[in-house]
Description:
Number of helices: 2
Helix content: over 70%
Number of domains: 1
Amino acid sequence: MSLKAFHFVFIVASILMACGFAVWSFQNYAAPGGVRSDLVAGIVAALAAGGLVAYECYFLRKFKNVSFI
């Protein structure tokens, strides 16, 4: 596996984990007795996921001439 392929897989896994944490935080906030820190954590995780998506697009554009092999 090339460094480009590993980087791609690692960033996709990070995006999925950030989205999962955001959903979990929002569900905790919506549950009875939810605290404001759950809402803040969900927003931060959603922003991080968005930033990672933007970075992944930038990375793929920058290294489009490098093969995945």
